[in-house]
Amino acid sequence: MTDFKALTFDCYGTLIDWESGIATGLSELASRRAEPLTRDEILEAHARHESHQQKITPALRYDRLLQVVFEAPR
After folding, report:
1. Full-model pTM
2. Which phi-psi region, left, alpha or beta, contains residue 13 (left: φ > 0; alpha: ψ -120 to 50)?
3. Neighbours of 16 (CB within 10 A)
């Protein structure tokens, strides 16, 4: 390990349970549907819309991107 000057690791998703936060945050919106979404469906829909938005606005700050994704008409 002496060959390295720095060692980093990605702890987001490892130390932070972001999926539960997303599912909880969107559950009220999802429950308004005629057929409410399951937790997995909420996460899949969020990931799909987030990925699409990142492709069309790659320079958009992440906090703003999440706002755009949440407010987008479906």
Report:
1. 0.72
2. left
3. 10
Residue reference for tokens 């390990």: 1
CA gap 70, 26 in Å, rounded: 9
Please indicate whether residue 3 is annotated as part of the active site: no
Q: Going residue by residue through the chain (74 aa), what tens digit of pLDDT does each one get?
A: 678 888 887 777 677 888 999 999 999 888 888 998 999 999 999 999 999 999 999 999 998 998 998 887 76
Phi-psi region of 12 (alpha: psi -120 to 50; beta: other; left: phi over 0): beta
From the list 3, 10, 17, 40, the catalytic residue is: 10
Nearest CA to 41 out of 52, 29, 53 is that of 29
